[in-house]
Design goal:
single chain, alpha+beta, Nucleotidyltransferase, domain 5, 2 domains, five-stranded mixed β-sheet, 37% helix
């Protein structure tokens, strides 16, 4: 079986061709970038034409790399960034540039809705918060949540708002572009926090739509992530260089497919992902929420299951920042290859510079000679929500070197991931062995560092950069042939290496971690004064 998956990230798409039989094999892959338009008002937007051009060019690239023919493709699907907003007309055309999950223009709209009322919890209206939690164990308590993007357009762009036919996420827009069918996948519907997860009541909750002032006519029909959404239209097929009529499966968000592709799809399995963003996620058969730590159980692609998911907005993006600002003049990319599609996305360049980084980091001892870095380069969401939070290099002294700062960045990412893991442990039982995936898991130095800092065995897998796409491919395989997604993931995805914590570094990491957790509280008012 041959399957094409579009792994749609923050700033590039990686288009992957998999062959699935007794194993899952990556046959060919091509990537292309697109812009992220960031504005001073908190905007973070993208362009649908750039998305489509990237998808079309990478699809055609695949067949120049292998012997498989376009007519031999059995199905396609998507694994995409989530919590974006694409407003479309009746033909599925975008009415304005899509708003990326990082967009935070709706600060005023958020405060007017959730900041009102006499009784509040964590700054949110108690009545609205409890009503949302009753329906789906979640709530729109971050200014980056999709509701506030919708409300911002309603208030600031009425001419656009009045033309809206449906409100989609990014994956849903791609389905419409390929099939002509305008729907939402269940996980993207849940990500609006307007979806009712109660058994027998699944779907848009009329009460929440009314409470937030959402037009019910803007909400599309909902389909499962594993469902066949339609077939490739003649227009889309001609653009992509594929055969008309290929089954298009719904797919969904990266958060749900990464757990499947990581082989962490049994109840209680925990994985850590570090790509552009980062997260800790535990596979669950029931929902859990920790409103104080901003963690909830998001819908899985596997019907009836959830991912208890805690996010770090900028993880690998911090290492991207290192490349652009600390070591750009010290590395020779020719030494690491001539990949034509190097973009700002972490996975794309990491394979070419991790040798250099690993070598430099190894010159600094565990604890980075006392230097600590906070990886909050675009604010933070979990375990505290603060758009003003920023990165810090703390405790720099006269003998601090670049190698210490580089190591501190890697350690800071690991400290924050440990913080998220400990927050999850307050509500659920996370696994004793952690599956580590994403581009960062290509670095043995970072893998060992993560194991040392979290104090748990840490496993890696093959094709860790394509882990979300692999999960989506297995869902397509089950959609075509039948079968259980969790069982297939367990059968096809095995660890290739295990890292055991080195106890001799525990003391220094414990000391630095204690200080790391205090840095936000002691600097929150300074962030607010500087960045509001």
């Amino acid at each position: 079986m041959n399957v094409i998956i579009y792994d749609f990230g923050t700033s590039s798409v990686k288009t992957c061709l998999f062959k699935i039989d007794s194993e899952i094999r990556l046959i060919a892959a091509s990537s292309a970038g697109y812009a992220l338009y960031v504005s001073d008002d908190g905007g973070a937007e993208q362009d649908t034409a750039e998305w489509w051009n990237a998808i079309c060019s990478t699809t055609r690239d695949l067949f120049r790399m292998c012997d498989i023919k376009p007519e031999e493709v059995d199905g396609i699907s998507f694994c995409s960034q989530i919590q974006g907003s694409v407003f479309v007309d009746e033909k599925g055309n975008a009415l304005r540039r899509p708003m990326n999950y990082l967009d935070q223009k709706g600060v005023k709209e958020y405060k007017e809705c959730m900041g009102s009322g006499l009784i509040k919890i964590s700054g949110c209206n108690l009545f609205k918060l409890l009503r949302n939690l009753t329906v789906n164990y979640a709530a729109s308590v971050s200014v980056k949540d999709p509701v506030w993007k919708y409300k911002w357009v309603e208030k600031n762009e009425p001419e656009i708002y009045n033309k809206i036919y449906k409100w989609l996420d990014i994956n849903d827009y791609l389905i419409a572009r390929c099939t002509g069918r305008i729907v939402r996948t269940a996980d993207s519907a849940f990500a609006t926090f307007l979806y009712d997860t109660r058994k027998g009541r699944e779907g848009w909750n009329k009460g929440l739509l009314k409470m937030y002032g959402i037009n019910p006519q803007h909400m599309p029909d909902i389909i499962d992530c594993t469902e066949k959404a339609g077939e490739l239209t003649s227009k889309a097929a001609a653009d992509l260089g594929l055969k008309e009529g290929i089954p298009v499966f719904a797919g969904g968000g990266d958060t749900t497919f990464v757990s499947i592709g990581a082989g962490s799809a049994n109840v209680g399995d925990t994985h850590i992902y570090v790509g552009t963003s980062g997260w800790v996620s535990t596979f669950m058969d029931h929902q859990v929420v920790d409103i104080n730590a901003m963690i909830t159980g998001v819908l899985s692609a596997c019907h009836g299951y959830y991912n208890y998911y805690a996010e770090l907005e900028t993880a690998g993006k911090c290492i991207d920042w290192i490349k652009n600002n600390l070591i750009q003049d010290k590395i020779n990319l020719d030494k690491y290859g001539n990949e034509p599609n190097i973009t700002s996305e972490f996975e794309s360049f990491f394979v070419y510079i991790f040798d250099y980084l690993s070598d430099e980091i190894s010159k600094s001892p565990p604890g980075a000679n006392g230097v600590i870095f906070t990886p909050w380069l675009h604010g933070n969401r979990c375990p505290f929500e603060d758009n003003n939070a920023a990165g810090i290099f703390f405790n720099i002294r006269i003998n601090t070197g670049t190698k210490d700062m580089l190591r501190a960045v890697f350690e800071g990412i690991c400290y924050h991931l440990r913080w998220l893991l400990e927050c999850e442990d307050k509500k659920v039982k996370t696994s004793d062995t952690i599956r580590f995936v994403g581009g960062a898991s290509l670095s043995p130095v970072l893998c060992q560092m993560l194991a040392d800092i979290i104090g748990r065995k840490t496993e890696t897998i093959n094709n860790a950069q394509e882990v979300g796409a692999m999960g989506a491919a297995m869902v397509v395989a089950c959609g075509i042939r039948g079968g259980n997604v969790s069982e297939l993931a367990g059968k096809l995805v095995k660890p290739n290496h295990t890292y055991v914590p080195d106890i001799k570094y525990r003391e220094v990491y414990e000391k630095n971690y204690r200080v790391f957790k205090k840095l936000y509280k002691t600097n929150a008012s300074h962030f607010r004064e500087l960045n509001t």
